[in-house]
Task: structure prediction
Amino acid sequence: VQLQASGGGLVQAGGSLRLSCAASGSLISVNNMAWYRQAPGNHRELVARITSVGVTTYADSVKGRFTISRDNAENTMYLQMSTLEPGDTAVYYCNADVRSSGGTRSNVWGEGTQVTVSS
Result:
């Protein structure tokens, strides 16, 4: 099972970006999915999480600016980021709890995608 994140880039403060994360492989189900981020010198932190039925949670720093969503039919998760600030600059990682063929449950990380917000 793999997670592929995409959509990062360079944007000016106040701008928007949309990240995507697609799960692939021998999947039976994808349960909780989440976005994390890590800025240089900082620990990796939770940005937003979404359950399989669409219940969402957000870090206080992104509430009202970021929206997490998912398409269960496509095993894909999104993060719509608006009103971006320089403090949002980080590598963004997707994460998911998956159940693969054979019944194995695992927690999977995708490779990060860089988001850079210029002032």
